[in-house]
Design a protein that fits this description.
Length: 100
C-alpha cells in the first residue's frame, strides 16, 4: 500500500479483545497487549528500508525474512487502536512516547 499511495500510508495495530479473534492462537489471548507491542517492533523492522529480520522455524533454524517491494517511506506512521478500555488509551500514549 505504501508503494501504491507513493508513501502516504500509515498502519494501525490492535490487540484484539473478542475471543474469536484468537481461534488460530488461543494461547495469545492472555498476553495480547504485550504481544502486540512486541510485534509492532518486528513489523517496524521489516518495514524499515533494507532490513532483514531473522525468524526461527520449529526446528530452531533461523531464516532471514524481508518485505518486497520495499516501502517508499523510511518508516510508516503507526497508531494503536483503542475503543473503550482506558488502559489501552494509556498504552497507546506510552508506546507513542517510546517511539518518538
Amino acid at each position: 500500500m505504501d508503494n501504491l499511495s507513493r508513501g502516504r500510508v500509515g498502519i494501525s495495530f490492535a490487540s484484539g479483545w473478542q475471543v474469536n479473534d484468537f481461534v488460530l492462537a488461543p494461547e495469545n489471548h492472555a498476553h495480547r497487549k504485550e504481544l502486540m507491542i512486541e510485534n509492532i517492533g518486528v513489523v517496524q523492522k521489516l518495514l524499515a528500508r533494507a532490513r532483514t529480520v531473522e525468524f526461527r522455524d520449529p526446528k530452531g533454524k533461523t531464516t532471514p525474512v524481508k518485505i518486497l517491494p520495499r516501502p517508499v517511506q523510511e518508516s510508516l506512521p503507526i497508531w494503536i487502536t483503542a475503543s473503550g478500555n482506558p488502559d489501552t488509551f494509556k498504552l497507546a500514549g506510552e508506546v507513542g512516547r517510546e517511539m518518538c
